[in-house]
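Troubleshooting: if your tokenizer reports a length mismatch, compare against these two reference records.
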Amino acid sequence: MPTTFAYKVRDTSGKLVTGQLEADNTALVVSKLREMGLTPISVDKANSGFKREITIPGLGNRVKLKEVAVFSRQFATMIDSGLTLTRSLAILVGQTTNKHFAGVIDRVRADVESGLSLSQALDRHPKQFPRLYVSMVRAGETGGSLDQTLLQLATTLEKQVELRGKVRSAMTYPVSVMALVLVILAIMLVVIVPIFKKMYESLGSHLPVPTQVLVSISNLAVVLVPVLLGVGIVGLFVFRRWVATDRGRLAWDSFKLRLPIAGALARKTAITRFAGTLSTLMRNGVPLLEALDITRGTVNNAVVARAIEAAAEGAQRGEPLTQALAQHPVFPYMVVQMIGVGEETGAVDDMLAKVAQFYEQEVEATINSLTSILEPLMVVVLGSVVGSIVICLYLPMFDIYKAVGNS
């Protein structure tokens, strides 16, 4: 026997609509509502206190991008299976192991249940759901393709995680090796060399010139290492405060782009983020000016962000996107030309997607090249530093053995 269900939905204009339908089960009600072009919020048995709903997992303050991507993919699957927004969110709250994340998701569920749209509920948690996320969800709600939009978001976030991991792996090795070199150097100069110095003084042996130079450096290091350590900590604090300012961030990002190999990597990474994000937003119907403004905050480079801002100002005046981008050398000629072709053919989003794919491959190639160069270089540096100190320490031993042999 059919059961009467009370429902809450949003129409294509985002307006909250309530009503009732008769069906055998909740899934059939949801299916009918979706066929009508409506987005189901909740479906309950009429005059029943038990609510048949599910929930979307949202992000917590300390939620990783990977967790957000998993949440988006699971949420999309649930919506595509006919579950309502609130029911999906409730289920995902129970599935997440991150308690803070689960709490945010639960608050999103409560806001949706109280009448807010999903995008409005997510917008209340900007630290977990950035503007890119909220804007795409809003576009998905308007176009009635929320499940497909969430799948695209999951893919976009997964690519960001992969790109970030590649860049970090490329920089971790040289930084860790250089840190190891400095630690070994400090220990040998401050601890090991003074021990050998006292031993040679007790033997009354004459020190060769290389060993004398090493001892002098050691004497200086004993005094300077604590001072340098303190200055380094203060300098790091001041540097971070400076980089946090607009002027400092612009200067630092400009410097990074001028570095021989790392600069090319930073540039290609920023262009990958720019092209990929803008392509995704435009493909989901986000207006160009809003899409450029959102993209500006995702490139993680102040120089590229300023160029995007200039492009947005030009677009607001009716200028082509390529005209503004061409004035900034940070965008390669090929990128500008491909976007220009997209503007002429009306397929800017497709051309941007191709640019993003090309530069993803370029980033990977640059990282492989950087790693292949730095690995042997770091080994040579570490071996040279340690080997030179050891040779200088043991040079007097040859004179001692010679003197003992002659006696």
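Reference record two:
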Amino acid sequence: MGYQQKAIKDRIIYLNRRENSITYLDAQKTRSLNNPEERVQLNTFLSLIYDYNYPVERIKVCQLVKMGSASKEADIVVYSDDACQSPFIIVECKKQGVSAQVFEEAIEQGFSYASATLAKYVWTTDGHNNAYYEVWPHAIGERKQNQLSNIPAYQEDTSLKFKVKKQTRKLFRTTPGKTAPLKRLFQQPLFLQAFSYALLFVLFLTIYSKMSVMHFPEFYQLTKSYWPKYGIDFRWIYNIINFMAAGSTILLAMQLNFIPLAVKPGKTTWVLLSTMLYIPVWFVGSEFRGAWWNWQHYSDMSHQTWIYLQPALSALPIQMILLVGLVWIAEYQHKHHQKSVQARKVVRR
């Protein structure tokens, strides 16, 4: 299978054979393959993915590069970070068979983009001839001693976080517009922050639910005299588990800074976050009928942790809405505070 067919199958590109055009799905850019240079650019783009193993999300075609007061278009820019803020490789493509002078001009063009973006490498190609360079900031005009036999291949991150992110992106890679609204939603920082809180909360909830089921016999032996006296049922344990899960989520976020926050909330915000995590599950649990929380139902369940997990998962959409709102308020207040601080500095001057 050729790279084009593989890229189509992997939903990286979309080939319109009738119009002889190619659409780069991640960038949502369509180019005509009637232009020989575009064919070289396409093959180089696919080579970066399948020969050099760079993630498609870090490769931008026809990327605008700011050069002084003007902007010019680099054929391909490869970035070293997922946010595409740090250019790593500049690639200039020319149609096959160009003259040596045109090829040299393309090399100089690549270096001018690298100088403007602080990229580390320049690759110039016409599909047959290739020139690879390391960019030396202290000697930006060097073209001999910094010439390479090839550009560096991508060194893949082997962490679990990266693997999850890679599979998620692969899931959303599809034909243009089909999952665009959902993709845009997952790219929103507010949604990602709220989703991170909710996901961590569910993780703690699952752990505590499993522990509760495992140690329930011992717990019941210690408290069985109180069950009929105070009308205790499994909803009580459910509420304790959810309270512990909410507290653990916030404590972990505070201590380890595990969740990527746009701002650093104060104590009030942390308390509100805990409340937003706990109240929805408490409310949903109270709406479940008594038949759900009794002994017979608990004994008949094949997976007894579901007596605690199912009501909590039902509350997840409500949690997400409340968390998005709260994080938005926290960010808004932070920005407003920053503007006030800046305004006071201006007045003092």
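Descriptive notes for reference record two:
- The two ends are 67 Å apart (CA to CA).
- Residues 3-156 form a domain with the tt1808, chain A fold (CATH 3.90.1570).
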